[in-house]
C-alpha cells in the first residue's frame, strides 16, 4: 500500500519540505503532464516530478522526465527534481552517469525527509548462484547477437561481470568482441568485464566473479547443447514489427517457445521488439495490436510467457546498432555500440531500460540481492 492516501498528501508533504528550504512551491495546474510541483528561488525555476509507487523508479521513467524537460513547453524550467518514495534502480544512476545528465537531481523520500542521491552503485554481493539468460529464436537475422552483447553491456554498466557464451556456429560474438571487453566504471571505481567463450570453454568454477551468463543461441534448435537450454532462467526472443511478417513472426516465436519448453518448463520467456522505428506511431500501434493478439491465448496458458509491449521497452533503430561491428573493418579494438551520437546513445538507454523491465517483471533482481 502507498504511504500516503490520497497520493496528493505526499505532494503536500514535499511542498512543506521545500518551503522549509526557502523555495516558493506550488502544485502544477490540474491536467499538467510531466511535472507535479513547481519551485522558484533565486532566479531558478524547477519542475518536480513525484513518483509514489511500490516499485523503484526505473530508467524509462527518468528518460521520460528528461524528455519532458527538453520540450519547448518546459523552456522556463532551469532544472528538474525527480522525487521517488521507493528509491531508484541501479540503471537510473548508470543512465545519469553515462548520459552525463546535469540538470536533473534525484531525491528519495526517507524518514520524512528528502535524501538527495549521489548515484553511487553498490558493488555486487558474493554470488549465490549464476543466472543464465538465453537469446534464442528459431529464425536467423533478427538481432540475437546484437541483443546478447548489449544486454551483457547493460549488466556490465551496472557493475556486474558477465560471461557471453557463443552457441551459434557462425561465432559472430567472437568476431565482434574477440575474447571480451572491459567497461570502465565511474571515477574511482572498478569497471566490469564481458568475457566471450565458446560453449565448451565455460566452467562456473573458473569464473567466480561472473554472476550472469548470456547465451547467444543458434537458430538451429539441435545445434544448442541441451545442458545450456535446461539451465536458462530467462530467455529473450527477439522479433520485429513487420507488416508482411506478423503472422510468420508469431509462428516462429510460438515454435521457439515450444522448443524451449521441451527441455525447460520454468524459464521466463520474453518477446522483445528489435529494430523498432519509434517515429511510426500509428502503424506501430496497429502492428503491435496484431502481434499481441497472436500471443494472447498462449500467454494465458503459460504464466511464464511475456510479450514486452514496445511502448514500454523496445530496441530502437539507430545508426549505432546499424553500424555496430564497423571496428572490424577499421581493425579497431572490440567495442559495443554505446558510443554517443549527438550527445546521446539510444542503444545504451534501451538496454538499460530492458534490464530494468526484466527486473520489474521477473525475479531476475535476485542476481543482485
Secondary structure topology:
Elements: H1 8-20, E1 24-27, E2 37-41, E3 44-51, H2 59-69, E4 79-84, H3 90-98, E5 104-110, E6 113-116, E7 131-135, H4 144-157, E8 162-166, H5 172-177, E9 180-183, E10 192-198, E11 212-216, H6 226-229, E12 234-239, H7 246-261, E13 268-273, H8 281-301, E14 305-307, H9 319-322, H10 326-329, H11 346-360
Parallel strand pairs: 3-4, 4-5, 7-11, 7-12, 8-10, 8-11, 12-13, 13-14
Antiparallel strand pairs: 1-2, 2-3, 5-6, 9-10
Helix pairs in contact: 3-11, 4-11, 7-8
Strand order of the largest sheet: 9-10-8-11-7-12-13-14
- Helical content band: 25-40%
Distance between the termini: 23 Å
Along the chain, the helix and strand elements come as: HEEEHEHEEEHEHEEEHEHEHEHHH
Beta content: 15-25%
Shape: globular
The average pLDDT value, as a whole number, equals: 88
Largest sheet: 8 strands, mixed
Q: Count every helix, treating DSSP H or I runs of 4 or more residues as helices.
A: 11
Q: pLDDT under 50 segments (min length 5)?
A: none
What class would the helix/strand composition place it in?
alpha/beta
* Rg from Cα: 22 Å
Number of strands: 14
Amino acid at each position: 500500500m502507498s504511504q500516503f492516501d490520497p497520493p496528493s498528501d505526499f505532494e503536500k508533504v514535499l511542498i512543506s519540505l521545500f518551503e522549509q528550504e526557502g523555495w516558493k512551491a506550488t502544485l502544477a495546474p490540474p491536467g499538467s503532464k510531466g511535472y507535479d510541483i513547481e519551485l522558484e528561488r533565486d532566479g531558478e525555476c524547477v519542475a518536480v516530478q513525484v513518483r509514489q509507487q511500490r516499485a523503484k523508479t526505473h530508467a524509462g521513467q527518468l528518460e521520460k522526465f528528461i524528455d519532458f524537460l527538453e520540450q519547448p513547453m518546459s523552456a522556463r524550467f532551469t532544472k528538474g527534481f525527480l522525487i521517488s518514495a521507493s528509491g531508484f534502480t541501479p540503471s537510473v544512476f548508470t543512465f545519469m552517469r553515462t548520459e552525463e545528465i546535469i540538470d536533473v537531481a534525484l531525491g528519495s523520500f526517507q524518514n520524512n525527509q528528502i535524501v538527495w542521491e549521489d548515484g553511487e552503485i553498490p558493488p555486487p554481493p558474493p554470488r549465490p548462484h549464476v543466472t543464465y539468460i538465453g537469446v534464442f529464436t528459431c529464425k536467423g537475422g533478427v538481432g540475437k547477437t546484437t541483443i546478447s552483447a548489449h544486454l551483457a553491456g547493460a549488466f556490465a554498466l551496472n557493475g556486474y561481470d558477465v560471461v557471453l557464451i557463443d552457441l551459434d556456429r557462425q561465432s559472430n560474438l567472437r568476431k565482434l568482441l574477440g575474447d571480451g571487453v572491459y567497461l570502465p566504471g565511474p571515477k574511482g571505481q572498478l569497471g566490469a568485464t564481458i568475457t566471450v567463450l565458446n560453449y565448451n570453454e565455460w566452467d562456473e568454477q573458473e569464473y567466480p566473479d561472473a554472476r550472469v551468463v548470456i547465451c547467444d543461441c543458434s537458430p538451429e534448435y539441435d545445434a544448442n547443447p541441451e545442458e545450456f537450454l535446461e539451465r536458462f532462467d530467462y530467455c529473450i526472443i527477439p522479433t520485429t514489427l513487420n507488416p508482411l511478417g506478423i503472422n510468420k513472426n508469431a509462428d516462429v516465436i510460438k515454435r521457439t517457445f515450444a522448443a524451449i519448453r521441451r527441455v525447460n518448463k520454468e524459464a521466463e520467456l520474453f518477446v522483445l521488439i528489435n529494430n523498432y522505428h519509434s517515429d511510426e506511431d500509428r502503424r506501430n500501434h496497429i502492428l503491435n495490436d496484431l502481434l499481441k493478439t497472436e500471443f494472447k491465448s498462449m500467454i494465458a496458458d503459460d504464466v511464464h510467457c511475456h510479450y514486452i509491449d514496445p511502448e514500454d521497452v523496445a530496441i530502437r533503430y539507430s545508426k549505432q546498432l546499424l553500424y555496430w561491428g564497423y571496428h572490424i573493418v577499421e581493425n579497431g579494438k572490440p567495442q559495443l555500440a554505446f558510443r554517443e551520437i549527438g550527445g546521446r546513445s539510444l542503444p545504451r538507454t534501451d538496454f538499460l531500460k530492458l534490464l530494468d523491465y526484466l527486473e520489474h517483471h521477473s525475479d531476475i533482481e535476485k542476481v543482485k540481492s
